[in-house]
Amino acid sequence: VSAADRRRFSGTRCVVTGGLGFIGSNVALALADAGAEVTVVDALVDGHGGDAANVDGSAVRVVIADVGDVGAVAPVVTGADHVFDLAGQGSHIAGARDPERDFDLNAVARLRFLEILRRARPGGPTVFASTRQVYGRPATLPLTEDHPPRPTDVNGVAKLAAEYLHLLQDDGSVILRLSNVYGPRQHLRRDDLGVLPVFFRRALRGEPLVVFGGGADARDALYVEDVVEAILVAALTPEAAGRVMNIGHEEHMALWRMAELIAAASPAGPPVVAGDWPLEHARVDVGSVYTSSSLATEVLGWQPEVPFDDGVARTLEWFAQHPERYDG
Ligand SMILES: NC(=O)c1ccc[n+]([C@@H]2O[C@H](COP(=O)([O-])OP(=O)(O)OC[C@H]3O[C@@H](n4cnc5c(N)ncnc54)[C@H](O)[C@@H]3O)[C@@H](O)[C@H]2O)c1
């Protein structure tokens, strides 16, 4: 979105669910910067990336509530110009450990939230953050949207259900299937995180980066600013309503290479070492996976701008200035 387009949010009322989390807070802050009146709804779910510090010092208003809590959420969404539904559980490991909780957080809470939206705010654009994990193990690469969704774990099934619940809405939400995202404000204070946050956490702490299973599998990764851009432009593009689009990076590389680049860019310069797959990880792994975003380029005019090495440098720089965010 050009600076002029971002100003189209000026004076609008925007609601961001999951807005204390990694992606949500980056979106909320960008909207506030553009002059929007922003309210985030976040339950600070245990084990997720939500942190009140993510929006500290900004004009963003915070409502601590579950997205399915009608008493708290209906007044917030009534009359909202834009709704960004970015709350949810992203961890496949957490989903495998407690499938019912995953389904509650990703699907059931979403059903309740969408019911609140339907009554309190019929129509109007909603953007939903889904995941490329709904495809499961790819039959062909890069993944395009016509590849059948065959999720291999409950987290993927719950996200797919959430997509369809969104698509049932009259307002035709925009579904964005995100690849792995990294960058400032990502939660790095635990070790049971996704592969990129674990690499960053270890690189910042000067601990060896452990790559499971040889690290030959490829991934694409998105710097969070590119994701914010895709989410904002999706809200401003009427033709995007009802569409399901991949948001990924054309630059993809072996996980081992990603680890090497992160380790080398970190001042501590820790080694990259091979490790055996822990069973829990092996169960939810899908091999090489990366997506094509050509549909998003066509519909939204969006494409990622930040190459991996640049995004890594910017991420390490931000965390170097916020040691309390990875040293817990
Ligand atoms: N980070 C990634 O690499 C990535 C990739 C693909 C998709 N996604 C999806 O994007 C969304 C946001 O991811 P993130 O990395 O910002 O995660 P995050 O854990 O940093 O943020 C999620 C936020 O949602 C909140 N939340 C969860 N369920 C809620 C509920 N029922 N009511 C209110 N708040 C709730 C949590 O408290 C947390 O603050 C997730 O749904 C995730 O699956 C993320």
Quick structural gist:
The chain has about 325 residues and is of the alpha/beta class. It contains 12 helices and 12 strands. The two termini are about 35 Å apart.
Task: Give descriptors for this structure.
328 residues; alpha/beta; seven-stranded parallel sheet; three-stranded mixed sheet; binds nicotinamide-adenine-dinucleotide
Write the layout of secondary structure elements.
Layout: H1 3-6, E1 13-17, H2 22-33, E2 37-42, E3 61-64, H3 70-77, E4 82-85, H4 92-97, H5 99-120, E5 126-131, H6 154-167, E6 174-178, E7 180-182, H7 195-205, E8 209-212, E9 218-223, H8 224-235, E10 244-247, E11 252-254, H9 255-265, E12 272-275, H10 279-284, H11 294-300, H12 308-321
Parallel strand pairs: 1-2, 1-4, 2-3, 4-5, 5-6, 6-10, 7-9, 8-12
Antiparallel strand pairs: 9-11
Helix pairs in contact: 2-8, 3-5, 5-6, 7-9, 9-12
Bound molecules: nicotinamide-adenine-dinucleotide.
What can you tell me about this protein's structure?
- This protein is of the alpha/beta class and 328 residues long.
- The protein contains 12 helices and 12 strands.
- The chain has helices at 3-6, 22-33, 70-77, 92-97, 99-120, 154-167, 195-205, 224-235, 255-265, 279-284, 294-300, 308-321; strands spanning 13-17, 37-42, 61-64, 82-85, 126-131, 174-178, 180-182, 209-212, 218-223, 244-247, 252-254, 272-275.
- The strands form 3 sheets. Strands 3-2-1-4-5-6-10 form a 7-stranded parallel β-sheet, with helices on both faces. Strands 7-9-11 form a 3-stranded mixed β-sheet. Strands 8-12 form a two-stranded parallel ribbon.
- Strand 5, helix 6 (154-167) and strand 6 (174-178) form a beta-alpha-beta unit.
- Helix 5 runs parallel beside helix 6, helix 7 packs parallel to helix 9 (255-265) and helix 9 packs across helix 12 (308-321).
- The chain is globular.
- The model has no long low-confidence stretch (mean pLDDT 95).
- The chain binds nicotinamide-adenine-dinucleotide (NAD).
- Residues 17-18, 20-24, 41-45, 48-50, 66-67, 86-88, 90, 105, 109, 129, 131, 178, 180-181, 187, 194 line the site of nicotinamide-adenine-dinucleotide.
